[in-house]
Amino acid sequence: MANEEAIGLGVVGLGRAFTLMLPTFMADERVRLVAAADPRPGARGRFEQDFGGAAYPDIGQLCRDPRVEAVYIASPHQFHAEHAEIAAAAGKAILVEKPMAINLDDCTRIVDAVRRHGTVLVVGHSHSFDGPVLHAARLLQSGRYGRVCMLNAFNYTDFLYRPRRPEELDTAQGGGVVFSQAAHQVDIARLLMGGMVDSVTARTGRWDAGRPTEGAYGALLGFQGGAFATLTYSGYAHYDSDELMDGIGEMGIRKARCGHDLARQRLAGYGSPAEEARLKQESGYGGERYQAPSSQETRFHQHFGHVLVSAEGADIKLTPQGLMIYGDREITFEPTPKSAVPRSEVVDEIWAALRQGQPPVHDALWARATTEVCLAILQSAAGAGGVSMRFQVPAVK
User: Fold this and answer.
1) For the chain, what is the domain count?
2) Which CATH number do you get for residue 54?
């Protein structure tokens, strides 16, 4: 592929989401980092040093850069709608981190902006892009095992005890596990179950007064046609469900040990919320403690915990290497081919949209539907009981 075919990418927000996607952007020849916007001078300077691109203090200046064809919005959740509107008005394609927004009005603002300006939007990364998830979706959509009936997703992590800024512990600003983590599980369930959730019943847990946001949830999703999914998540840093994934962590790297005691030990040493936020900033891109992500290739796919989906003719377990299929007469394993580029599936989707004219699966309508389910988890847990859906869309076959 000639270098000039690569998508010129401008990044808005050089935080953790950017560092997780950075190995993809560096290794995939279909994208080229040409610009960034971030309020922190240190992050801007590091970007200019690493990539030779321009770095701006705000998105407006970035969107006026003619080299930017697509904008990757990795700013904090509460700014996604404003930033997506600015990028769409500038005629830029958009890759926006999940959740697309933290309320349905802002989601609709983004849907309307993309439609009005005729641009392309993809929401990701979410773990519904993981290779085994896409593999399972294709297998289920083929009808080989009949109707999809039930899904169970289960993940226990140390999410709540990783270094956080104050707004990351404030649900009103998009903090807590429902916005950041349920968005993954819900996206996976919707993709594998056909997309059309019709009701949500849930409970959430707030069990640490020092981390005053949702740290756990359990949700029952009903789908049109009678199928259902149960989603369980805890970020309270006790049990580590990567034990169920043969010790392979979320990023597809085998762990030396499972267990989350170290997360709590590190947090105890921060002293105060201000110190915690400062240390997080210093460890982020452009900070004094920043460590560049490893370029070492792993043979395992990334994952989001245990996922088991039941069709009429088989139970299918997703693993970091492929699919275990428990059929009527035999148990088989189908390996999922793996790209050398991590999260290359995200680039696959935006490349297909921009260079091949294919509508993306994870578009604004899809992402609004996922956010609707996440908000329903909070609403149901607050006492609403079963919550009906209005904005669901089917999974694209």
Assistant:
1) 2
2) 3.40.50.720
pLDDT of 4 reads 75
What's the average model confidence in pLDDT over 308-323?
98
pLDDT at residue 397 greater than cutoff 70: no
pTM of the shown model: 0.95
Query: What pLDDT was estimated at residue 1?
Result: 45
Please say if the pLDDT value at position 154 is more than 70: yes
- Reported as a single tens digit per residue, the pLDDT across 225-267 is 999 999 999 999 999 999 999 999 999 999 987 778 888 888 8
What CATH number is attached to the domain comprising 196?
3.30.360.10
Q: Are residues 190 and 226 in the same domain?
A: yes
Predicted pLDDT at 211:
95
Containing structural domain, residue 237: 129-271+299-339+383-388
Q: Do residues 247 and 321 share a domain?
A: yes
Same domain, 22 and 88: yes
Q: Three-class SS string for the chain?
A: CCHHHCEEEEEECCCHHHHHHHHHHHHCCCEEEEEEECCCHHHHHHHHHHHCCEEECCHHHHHCCCCCCEEEECCCHHHHHHHHHHHHHCCCEEEECCCCCCCHHHHHHHHHHHHHHCCCEEECCCHHHCHHHHHHHHHHHCCCCCCEEEEEEEEECCHHHCCCCHHHHCHHHCCCHHHHHHHHHHHHHHHHHCCCEEEEEEEEECCCCCCCCCCEEEEEEEECCCCEEEEEEECCCCCCHHHHHCCECCCCCECCCCCCHHHHHHHHCCCCHHHHHHHHHHHCCCCCCCCCCCCCCCCCCCCCCEEEEEECCEEEEECCCEEEEEECCCEEEEECCCCCCCCHHHHHHHHHHHHHCCCCCCCHHHHHHHHHHHHHHHHHHHHHCCEECCCCCCCCC
Q: 200 and 140: one domain?
A: yes
